[in-house]
Amino acid sequence: MTDFHIQHGTEVAEALRNRRPVVALESTIVSHGLPRPENLRVARQIEQAVRDAGAVPATIGMVGGRLVVGLDDAELTRLATADGVAKLSVRDLAVAAATGADGATTVAATSAVAAAAGIRVFATGGLGGVHREAAQTFDESADLTTLARTPIAVVCAGVKSILDVGATLERLETLGVGVVGYRTRRFPGFFVTDGGFDLDWSVDSPEQVAAALVAQVRQGVHAGGLIVANPLPTDEQLDPALHDRTLADGLARLARDGVTGKAVTPYLLSHFHSVTEGASLAVNVRIILRNADLAARIAVAAAAWPT
Ligand code: PSU
Ligand code: MN
């Protein structure tokens, strides 16, 4: 019988004990966000990108009811390939454990678990946010409300353009979640470099992000998250015209097929990947690998500060 405490992978446990840099990684992009069989290969590449930049990867997920920080390769393989892996937000973690489920953690759940485990930096692709019909459906990702109360830096390429980007930025402001552009003052739109909105803050280096994390702790004033928005270079983005066409078509199909709630994000991502014949998938992978590299460099810079 499991005791329900968070379990740490061996390497992650040792790194945390010795205050070595650790980067949290989510598992929902692996189980629900990327097509098989590339998903497992990409999951391993993300971990390697963190290692290459000098930090220890801690992919978070639930295996048979055990909540694990730092999945080993067998566990990662299981979440990437098994049928019936649940998509777990924060509210699902306890019931999923009690029922012995396999589950992949979203940005919300990964952030909360990572912070509970003492990890301050997290890399993902794109954040969840406010959906386009949210005024009617109330569909707003728990990623936002969780980051309001979770002290972690999330390196991402903004929010997916499938969302209402402006509304998401407004909600982040209301909720007190920090947003900084990495070497930009424009909020990125995931597949595309420019999501169409300005940012108040820009940082130039991993060291500056690390300094902000240290300042947050020492000031003791703000207990929420910091979004580090890392855009793709324009020559690596998805062709904006192809992007706009695919999005319009995907939104129309979504309405036609009556897809709602937590199925929306995986549905639209898989629509993009099939319609663009893999172009959006290649872009998606680039985004994640770049974010993993930046997150690791932030974690390394943060570990250099005295505690
Ligand atoms: N961004 C991606 N791929 C994904 C997700 C985000 O590029 O698979 C996942 C993340 O785990 C995020 C979740 O937390 O989608 C948001 O889902 P929802 O809108 O149901 O909260
Ligand atoms: Mn939702």
Automatic annotation (TrEMBL):
Catalytic activity of the protein: D-ribose 5-phosphate + uracil = psi-UMP + H2O
Requisite cofactors: Mn(2+)
SUPFAM superfamilies attached to this UniProt entry: Indigoidine synthase A-like
Residues annotated to bind substrate: K87, V107, S141, A142, D143
GO molecular function: hydrolase activity, acting on glycosyl bonds
Gene3D superfamilies in the record: Indigoidine synthase domain (3.40.1790.10)
Catalytic residues as annotated in Swiss-Prot or TrEMBL: E26 (proton donor), K160 (nucleophile)
Binding site for Mn(2+): D139
Pfam families named among the record's database cross-references: Indigoidine_A
Cross-referenced InterPro entries: Indigdn_synthA-like (IPR022830), PsuG (IPR007342)
Cofactor comment text: Binds 1 Mn(2+) ion per subunit.
Keywords: Glycosidase, Hydrolase, Lyase, Manganese, Metal-binding
Highest taxon in the source lineage: Bacteria
EC number: 4.2.1.70
Family: Belongs to the pseudouridine-5'-phosphate glycosidase family.
Function: Catalyzes the reversible cleavage of pseudouridine 5'-phosphate (PsiMP) to ribose 5-phosphate and uracil. Functions biologically in the cleavage direction, as part of a pseudouridine degradation pathway.
Subunit record text: Homotrimer.
HAMAP family linked to this entry: PsiMP_glycosidase
Protein name: Pseudouridine-5'-phosphate glycosidase
